[in-house]
Amino acid sequence: MLVLSLASFGSHLLILFPFQENGKEEKERKQEATEVKVPTESSQSVPSSSALDNSSNVPETATDEIKSQEIHLEEQTKASTDLIKDSDTNVSKNFVVRKPAKVIFNLDPDVLNSKLEQPWKKNFYKRVEARAQAMQQKIINKDNLKKELEKKAEKKFPRNNLAKEWFNTENMTLKTRAYLLDKLLPTLVPGVEKMLMQVEKKKLWAEADITTKFDPINHLGEYLMRNNPYYIKDSGMSGYQRVMRDVTEELKIHVPNTIGNRVSKMKESIKQKREERECISEVKIKVANIRKQALQEQFSEWILDPKGMIPLVVIQNVLHEFFQNPDFQLEACCKQLDIADSMGPRLNKMEFTEYISSYIADFKSETFEKLLKHLCHCADEFREIIKTDMRRQMFAELFLCCDRGKVGFLGRQRTLALLETFYDQSSKMLRSLLRNPRQWPFIEFEEIDLPEFWGDMDNQKHIYEDFDKVLLEINALLSEKHASKTQSKLLETPEDQHKHDEYTESTPPEQQRGTTAEQEPNRISTKEQEQDKESTGKKELYREIVTKQTHTGSTPEQGSSRELITEQRRHSDSVTEQGHSDSVTEQGPPQRVSSSKQGVHMESTAEQGRHRESIAAQGPHRGSISEQESHRESVTEQEPHKGSRAEQEPSGEIIPEKQQDIDSTLQSGRGSIFRESRKSRESASFEHTEILPQEKRTQEQIYEEELFVSPELQEEVPISRRKYHLSETTKKEVQKDPSCEKSQKIEGKSWSGELLTCNWNMDYIKCEEEEQANLLYSSSRFTDLHAIIRNIQSYKEVKGGSAFNGVSFNLLQFVQLLETFVGEDAPLSVSETLTSFFKRGYVETKEEKISGLEQIRHNASRVRRELLLEALFQKWDSDGSGFLDLNEVDELLYTYKEGMEKESMKKAKLHIQFPKPHPGQEVRMSSKQFQKYIQLVVSELRGNEDHVLESVVEFLMNSLERSPTENLRNCARRKWLYRIQHAAETSGVSLEPVYTETFKALTQDAESHGNKKISAHISLLEENRLLPDRGNVLLRNVASTLDDAPFVLNRVLYRDMKGISFTVVDEGKPIHVPQVQHHGNVFFWNNSINKSDQNGSFLALPLQDAYMRVFGVMAVDTLRDPQKINIFVPHEIRFYQGVANVFSTAYHYVHSRKHILHVVITGIAWLCEITSDITTITTYFIEPGPKQDSDYVLRNMMVTRHLGLTKIHRNPPIIFRKTCIFRDFLFKCTDTSEVILASVCGENHIVIPLRERTGKALGVLDFNIGRNKMLLYREFKDLQKMIKVVQAACYEILGEISGEIKKNYILEIENVGEVQRAGILFFRIMLQELQESLQLLTSLDFVSLLLYDYHPSVEPTYLPDTKSQEVEANTKLVHDILLAVILFIHPELELSSDFGNWDKCKMYVNRHFVTNICAFDPTARHVEVNLKLIGEYIRDHSRIEVWKFGNSVIEYLYHWAHICLTLMELSKKTSSAIAPPLPSKTDSYVYAKMPKGSLPGKC
Asked: Which of 105, 567, 816, 1455 would suit a FRET pair with 440, their CA atoms being 20 to 30 Å apart?
């Protein structure tokens, strides 16, 4: 019966509760909407299916106590909830209806702060904050009370774990089980428990048949209705219910697509990510510790100061160079570097580690490994820097010792003569390290005769002795070895191998090498050139190997170890793969010590052991190999490691007959003819110029120890045995000492910790202007000029740098010359020997000392005069107009000494040519003309010129009365004018900053000194090609102020239009229109303005160049000024004239740099087409520093790659001196204005300055020749030709811009325009050089060429030998070149019957032949030649073929024909073909390249 009752109870229960489900969920949503959640009844009643009797054992007192506390908690919760609702209502009233805040830009911060600090906002925020804090405190109190109640209930009602049986995650019943546990069972279980208690109480278990009124279903239903959780709060929970509640919450997590499930997954994900972050953090810490340990180990490879520290700026330069590498893309890290300005800050080991670690935290392992290699490589480079610094200090002390008169310079001719004597008296070993002082760059191009410069093809005159010859021998050996190895691979059977060996033994070596020895000495073998089947990697390998062996065969003492080294490189894989360092055995003089991570390379000669290019290419050499190709890694890493002397074996000897040939060639080379300047050096007598016998013996002993190997090891050993022996030895050495550290000494000398030559440009360059300015400051006679002189000094263009004068050397130039002579590879003992030799040999006569002192006094006097006269000019020209009226100057000057010197002063006008007078007979003098005039006047007066000039300047200064207002106005205007010129110098050949500063100067002066609002625009003259009927020229507006830009910019003014601008152009004087509304010939660009509003003043000023030619107009008006009276006053007009003058100077300054860039691009294109060993060519310009007193900087204007493609930067990067510790050769070049030969990072550089007319450097050309020690003599001579022509073009451009020389138009194409003229200037100057060289030839020079007879129609009846083929090729070369030149001069020959007959064609080579060549203009309009036919004759012959022929006439004519062909092709193209390839406003860079068809080829 009871069972049936329970079953019926279940059916009623399912009917009862579903009706209440939706209501309960809706109530729960309402409760969740409140900020403070009231504990729900579901959390207080957890059902239990077991332990039904636990609740009966709980005392009634405990239940009552808990009930009372819970009721109290509910009351507090209700009160807090009501409070929160009230606060929500208030907040909504205050904030919901507020409008969105307005975003106001450019608002004053003071106004903004005052608005935020209004009183009502403060009070409101205080009230809201107090209310929020009270609410928060109540919530905290409620939570704390709830926790306490739960703890008490936990003690009163122990947990019953039987309820855990409800936990089951079966998917079939998971949702139902979770629903029942959450909605039904928390109320049903207590009800069933109460019902069973009543059954037990009434004892109905035993009396089942007794009729009773008790119905269990009704009782359970009544209980459920009375304890409905929606309406009645349960008084408490039993231990079973509490466990059931926990089970319910845990079970809800596993129900999919529920909040609990999603929250659980989120927590799990968060936990997993946290664990991953912790794991990553641990890994990062471990990696950071490992990296710090690696950095600490790497620190020991640096050479340290006596305190064990390294300068911070050195490490910053290392990081800067690494971050600048485009392969790593770390430019952002480079911006964070704040490089120190001095060597003061130092780092110890820990600071070194922490400093670098702060920049590499996010680096990948590969990047960090590359950084480590870079650090190791820079450690080696820093050693070389310190060694160079020691050498330079030695030479500086030598300069001070030789400069006994303390004049600050030494004679150039005497210095070069001493170098030549030292070079001649040196041993063969020493000369292999030194550079020939009789060759460029020690002598200048002007000191070389034209025939010798253009026609000398003697390879013995290279800067390195026997460079081409040694290179040719190495190429021959490499080709032979490569051919033998290739043949051995092709011989598969032993019989073939045996036959090949027999053939090799029976064939003489000379016959085997016959073809190879006649090659052009290139780095690529003949077989590769003929078949062209080898990979590029093989060619690079041969190039690198040959470069390392450049000096191996230069002396007989050194022997020939090329085969041994080649074999060792190919069979040392096992050694180099270990990557450890070998032990260092110090023998003889101190040598470079290897890194702990570098396979130390010991060559068989001193040059190979010391050359930085070979060391940089060694086995794992600090990162340089990791960035090369894999095929190069496999060979260059296989360097033989340094062992004992017994392991260094030469592989052969030089034949005595061969050595005699070398010596005879050297003697013939020394006997060449030089110019008179060099003859004077050779004829100069020196008392103590010979090297003492004891010193020679000591020197030879030193180099024998360094350059020679042990004599007992010079026996013949099979290559295989030697190879095996050396590789095994190096393996043992690697295992013996794997942790070899570098020595802290350089050739036995410790580093003092300072780089004394780091800032020599500021410390040792004697600035005479600053000294004289300081002397003038201390003089009370010129007090009124002190402020002006200070401004002149502060506005100085570029501070630092020495001018090359060809007569004397200052300290920097002397030190650099000796460093170039000695080279970077020679040990310090060579410098010591040279120093001692110079101290004995450099002896000045008494007359020379007196002459030097007189020159110093004269220079000081000249600088003092220039400063005084420039300051006087600026004081006189108080309005900044840039000129003075000659009549006004004479009027004041004639009152000197009350007119007693008037007649003498008038004589000065007879010796000066004044500019043409302007309309009104006004003669205007510029600053230079004023200085020249005053000096001429002083020269006519009696007395000491210096004293007289100071007296005249003092008189004029006191006679000029200027008010304080005028002085202040003059100072402000000078500053604005200086900014215009400074913008041009720092613009990177862009005119936009110049336009900006010009308009700033105009507007600022108008506002400050005229109280006006002006508008301005600049228009330039252009040739009118589209509409010539409207005038030959037009004015195009190229820049304007911002307000007028939409109406003025890019507009064109023709001659037939209204306007006064063309009147200004024609007359060359400014025109002022006080009221434009009353002037009928003013053109208004803005048509929208009514005629009634066209009120204002207008001023048009001419823009003139150095020849006073007008090239544009600058217009200023006051049409936008609201004032009625706005006429320009005289001092404003004069200042605007000064602005126009300074703008013209700045404009031409920028254009001169553009023209120079154009010439350089043309010259580089010509050079790249005939040379192959130049890797990159970088062009730099010098600019003033960003700060007023800072050092100058370099601008990287463009970079030319190997293929001749030039990348021109729109915003050229700036290079500071402090970032170039490892690449200081650029600033050495600009400081001394001398050619620098440097080696950095294993790559050799030839750095050549571009000089101004004063001798100072204006730019630098950096030729990177890669790992080659030097260019071949042919390429070296072509480089000299290119530099000479480019420098001559620079002199001509700068002289024409400044007005020092008149423009010289040689070719017809030069009259087209300035831009087109700059594009062909390089070829025109080279054409002139060749014409002068041809004029020096005699008729006998052409006779030998005419003897070559060639009949192309005759077929040979036999197979000619090698010599006959060579004769035939030479004959064809001579005939083709001569025919091409004849066709230029006599184009009618092509249509003549004599064209195919050489006997008749050679009749054109007569006594008028050279005259016709020199008079020929390839760009003339009347010249019509067959360019295609001429091109076929010329381009069939390569530059190498012409060079090998060795005839100066053919050399001249070959270049002349190519240049004429190029000029003709350029003249036939449009003007845009030779326009300067500079970037536009929207481009970051552009590419430029000359056409290949017009230039000679390489091969």
From this structure: 1455
Q: Which of 622, 633, 651 is nearest to 544 (CA)?
A: 633
Is the distance from CB of 786 to CB of 370 less than 8 angstroms?
no
Q: Is the dihedral of CA 1266, 1268, 1274, 1279 positive or negative?
A: positive
| 325 neighbors 773 (Cβ within 8 angstroms) | no
Q: Which residue has the tokens 């076929």?
A: 1432
% of the chain at pLDDT higher than 90: 31
Rounded to an integer, what is the distance from CA 743 to the centroid of its chain? 33
At position 1163, the amino acid (one-letter code) is: G
How far apart CA 592 and CA 609 sit, in angstroms, is 9
Strand boundaries in 1224-1376, DSSP class E: 1236-1240, 1243-1251, 1257-1264
Mean pLDDT of 1127-1139: 93
Cβ neighbour number for residue 231 with a 10 Å cutoff: 10
**DSSP 8-state symbol, 989:** S
Q: Which tokens is 693 given?
A: 């016998």
pLDDT in the model for residue 309? 92
Q: pLDDT, tens digit, for every residue of 668-720?
A: 333 333 344 444 444 443 444 444 444 444 444 444 444 333 333 233 333 33
* Bridging pattern class, strands 924-925 and 1098-1104: unpaired
> Going by C-beta distance under 8 Å and a sequence separation of 6 or more, which residues neighbour residue 888?
none
Kindly report the backbone phi and psi dihedral angles of residue 1487, in degrees, each rounded to the nearest multiple of 5, phi listed first.
-115, 145
Give the dihedral sign, CA 1019/1022/1026/1031.
positive
Distant-in-sequence, close-in-space partners of 398: CB < 8 Å, separation ≥ 6: 818, 835, 838, 839
Which amino acid, residue 808? Answer: S
Q: Which of 126-140, 511-525, 729-743, 749-763 has the highest mean pLDDT?
A: 126-140
How far apart, in whole angstroms, are the C-alpha atoms of residue 80 and residue 77? 5
> Which residues share a beta bridge with 1021?
1035
Give the 3-state secondary structure of residue 1485: strand
Length of the chain measured in residues: 1499
Contact assessment for residue 1146 and residue 980, using Cβ atoms and an 8 Å cutoff: yes
Backbone region of residue 671 per phi and psi (left: phi > 0; alpha: psi in -120 to 50; beta: other values):
alpha
CA 599 to chain centre: 31
Residue 60: CB partners within 8 Å, gap ≥ 6? none
Evaluated on CA atoms 486, 490, 493, 498, the torsion sign reads negative
- 210-253 pLDDT, tens per residue? 556 778 888 888 888 888 877 766 556 777 777 888 888 888 88
The partner residues of 537 in beta bridges, in order of sequence, read none
Q: Give me the residues paired with residue 1117 across strands.
A: 1015, 1098
Q: Which residues pair with 1183 in a beta bridge?
A: 1193
Most distant CA pair in the chain, distance? 163
Residue 1178 main-chain phi, psi, to 5 deg: -115, 135
Listed in sequence order, the residues at least 6 apart from 592 whose beta carbon sits closer than 8 Å to its beta carbon are 380, 383, 609, 610, 615
Sequence-separated (6 or more) residues with CB below 8 Å from residue 103: none
**What is the rounded distance in angstroms from the CA atom of residue 1053 to the CA atom of residue 1030?**
10
Quote the CA–CA distance of 174 and 169 in Å, as a whole number.
6
- 641 phi and psi angles, rounded to 5 deg: -85, 160
- What is the rounded distance in angstroms from the CA atom of residue 1461 to the CA atom of residue 1453? 12
| Contact status, residue 574 vs residue 727, Cβ threshold 8 Å | yes
Residue owning tokens 């209806």: 97
Phi/psi for 451 (5° steps) reads -60, -35
Query: Which range, 3-7, 163-167, 845-849, 883-887, has the best average confidence (pLDDT)?
Result: 883-887
Q: How far lies 783's CA from each of 616, 776, 788, 880, 889, in Å?
A: 60, 9, 10, 21, 21
Q: Mean pLDDT lowest for which of 458-467, 478-487, 495-504, 1421-1430? A: 495-504
Reported pTM: 0.72
Mean pLDDT of all residues in 1375-1399: 86
Tokens of 1026: 């589209």
CA 873 vs CA 43, 792, 881, 890, 1438: distances in Å:
99, 12, 11, 14, 60
